[in-house]
Design goal:
By secondary structure, the protein is an alpha/beta fold. The protein has a single domain, classed as Rossmann fold (3-Layer(aba) Sandwich), CATH 3.40.50. Helix content is 26%, strand content 30%. The chain has six helices and eight strands, in the order βαβαββαβαααβββ. Strands 1-7-8-6-5-2-3-4 form an eight-stranded mixed beta sheet, with helices on both faces. The protein starts with a strand and ends with a strand. About 8% of the residues have low confidence.
């Protein structure tokens, strides 16, 4: 049975991630995390105290707010395939796969140049958010571990916990979905 947490507008992503991790992994400080869309590492501002080791993956290296333990600069789909083929060896126990694909600028299948986001690295490489979600799901299943996501819609999975965060998107109210899913091979 999963639980749903509603989060009002103004609560930051890193606060929601910390809330989810505290509910799923109470009293833990030894987590091993693989983040497939690492970015600046903002998710871990508060949650870092729960994590021993972060493997960050992104197509671009940023000036990190929270540095990963190790970083792979490549598309997450390539990383996942290398892990599956044992070309990249992960620690023996990964507790969590994390994904927060860039989806806010995607609109009804239009290509990046048509929607004016051509400067975004993922869109420049024609990598859409759905393929990133699929890669994260594939890795979580391969590792038989949990998946924490932030996305525009809830994923079809067995949720342990889910958070629905209210947001304002250009004059309109909306909801961003956060969830922790469990997969088995």
């Amino acid at each position: 049975m999963s639980s749903i947490v509603r989060v009002r507008h103004g609560v930051k992503s890193f606060e929601i991630v910390d809330l989810l991790l505290s509910k799923v992994f109470p009293n833990r400080g030894d987590l091993v995390v693989v983040d497939l869309t690492y970015g600046y590492g903002r998710f871990y501002r508060l949650a870092r105290k729960r994590i021993e080791y972060i493997i960050g993956v992104d197509i671009e290296k940023h000036e990190w707010e929270v540095a990963p333990s190790i970083f792979y600069q490549m598309p997450c789909q390539v990383f996942v395939e290398k892990v599956i083929r044992n070309e990249i060896v992960l620690p023996s126990k990964v507790n969590l796969v994390v994904v927060d694909p860039p989806w806010s600028h995607e609109k009804r299948g239009k290509i990046a140049q048509q929607i004016g986001v051509s400067s975004m690295p993922y869109h420049l490489k024609h990598i859409d958010s759905r393929s990133i979600i699929d890669a994260a799901t594939k890795l979580a299943k391969h590792l038989s571990t949990l998946l924490l996501y932030r996305y525009k819609e809830p994923l079809s999975c067995k949720h342990i916990i889910m958070a629905k965060a209210e947001v304002k998107i250009i004059r309109n109210k909306g909801v961003v979905h956060y969830g922790v899913c469990i997969f088995s091979r």
